[in-house]
Amino acid sequence: LDPDTAFDLERARLGFALASGEAERITAAVDALSSLIPAVDTLRQATWSVDSVFLALEQGDLDSACQRADAAWETVVAGGLEPTALGVRAARARMHAVHLRAGDGITQALMAAALAEGLDSTESISAFGEAGEILIAAGEHDLGSAYTRKAARLALRWSSPHSLVYVLSLADLALEEGRLLESRAIVRALLERVWRRGDDRYLRWCLIRLAQLAQRAGDSKRAATLLGASSTVVPGGAWASDPDVCELQAILPAELGGEVFRE
Predict the structure, then answer these.
(1) Tens digit of each residue's pLDDT (9 = 90 or more) over 109-148
(2) Residues of 85-113 as b/e, b for ≥16 C-beta within 10 angstroms?
(3) Would you place residue 164 in the very low, low, confident or very high pLDDT band (cuts 50, 70, 90)?
(4) Residue 237 burial (CB < 10 Å; 0-12/13-18/19+)?
(5) Helix, strand, coil: what percent of the chain each, to 5?
């Protein structure tokens, strides 16, 4: 294989290894990629410099992540790659590194979102969604909500499974602000999408949120029914330990009575 093709395959192997948490395969893939870097083109070199930031973040090495993030950004700027998907990804890498290291990252969040404005890709979804989360946590609620809304709209248009979580975030914002009808409409739109695709993870989350909405609207019986339905989608410890499930399990028996709740 030529070095560029070998790099692409090793990068894919690293992605699978990270997803499965196989430490030995992660190490092998990283070693292979590092050995290939001198022989690949400049775009792949820049790609690996950005990937290495996320790898350091995955491993909890925040000091290294911050150093690599600055170097990766300089590499991207030197290559004139800021307005590309890789540029947005590099900005996201800096945003996460600074946020996790110093609890800040607002400036980097604004930059990542600004770069995402001119790019129609799944990178834009992540940039808007993650920037929104950081800004909301920092008290910039209106701007953060606006970015979350952009992420949700793009996620629905792209039908990106990973990014549909931002649609749930948008529903959560509406729920927190007492806009129950809006929140319900968002969840139901997402529910229809994931039902057709058979995505049990999102189906469970949608049912739990509909249960929350029913409880907030005063329909405790419907809330309990929806909560019970959600338990049949992905049964087991993951369901029982969900904070929203725990909250409903604490509230609903008191509102309905234990026997009615169990029924």
Answers:
(1) 999 999 999 888 889 999 999 999 999 999 999 999 999 9
(2) bbbbbbbbbbbbbbbeeeeebbebbbbbb
(3) confident
(4) exposed
(5) 85, 0, 15
